[in-house]
């Protein structure tokens, strides 16, 4: 029986979908069976970030409306054994699915997969409620900015009200150079303000833009962000991995010291 | 003076953190001004049975409480500053 994890943030544009794609890819690389569910109905994007946009036939709304079987809507990622996508509908809106229906879909997926990852839309309305409904764990993505952290705090409050016990934080797009000169909050600052524990720090890395351009997630490759994502995946499956030293330049030292 | 200003200027990251802490205190308490006014009036009513209160000088607010250690997060706390004019005679 698998676990259902929701990736959410409150604020839009902080990197939920990129994070979901990379966590999915990373977990698959670690040998897990993973399904990524795009719950952003009407504004689907997980398909393009994964490079699977040309293979969509059915979507999650087709599943809940009974137009197809759940298995027919799943897209197998041929590059990574064990990774599947359940895409959102693009021509409908959030009201096309209810939280109860999402719980049913998640319960069915749990039978087949080790991890069911729900990519939540921005906001705190219906789409968010759908995304968290079937989940027992949550990962909050934020950037070290006042607006994103404030929204993350609101989300943490809502998750607590929904009795979600396992809530972890990813600080995304951290710029170590700015932190060092005092012009950006550090991951520790964000953790102190929000009061939840950290599961990952992802540096602001140009390679993420390149990866998204190509529709090829970079978890596990030798870029700094790729290493950060694979470390997050190790922590998700319960392994202890030290946090990356972001001051390190990739290249010679990365090869010398290996994965950490 | 310029030299001094250079050292006094707060880094913007620190400003961000301070602003966030303040805004989150009010976000988390979710207490409207009307509710605060009612709390204030109730406090006056109760305390007035025993002491004479300076109603004008009374100040209550919701802020972040200090935890046991610097790293510990404490919830919001109600702080009240209630000046007493006179302690009433017990009868």
Walkthrough of the structure:
The complex is a heterodimer of chains A (260) and B (91). In chain A, helix 1 (16-29) packs across helix 11 and helix 5 (99-112) packs parallel to helix 6. Chain A is 42% helix and 17% strand. Chain A is globular and about 55 Å long. In chain A, strands 3-4-2-5-1-6-7-8 form an eight-stranded mixed beta sheet, sandwiched between helices. The model of chain A has no long low-confidence stretch (mean pLDDT 95). In chain A, strand 3 (75-76) and strand 4 form a beta hairpin. The longest helix of chain A has 16 residues, at 146-161. With 260 residues, chain A is of the alpha/beta class. Chain A contains twelve helices and eight strands. With 91 residues, chain B is an alpha+beta fold. Chain B has a domain at 31-91. Chain B has three helices and four strands; from the N terminus they run αααββββ. In chain B, the strands form two sheets. Chain B has a two-stranded antiparallel sheet with strand order 1-4. In chain B, strands 2-3 form a two-stranded antiparallel ribbon. In chain B, a hairpin with a 6-residue loop joins strand 2 and strand 3 (73-81). The termini of chain B are far apart. The mean pLDDT of chain B is 78. The interface between A and B is medium-sized, with 20 and 15 residues.
List keywords for this structure.
heterodimer, A: 260 residues, alpha/beta, Rossmann fold, 8-stranded mixed beta sheet, 12 helices, 8 strands, 42% helix, 17% strand, globular, B: 91 residues, alpha+beta, two-stranded antiparallel sheet, two-stranded antiparallel ribbon, 44% helix, 26% strand, elongated
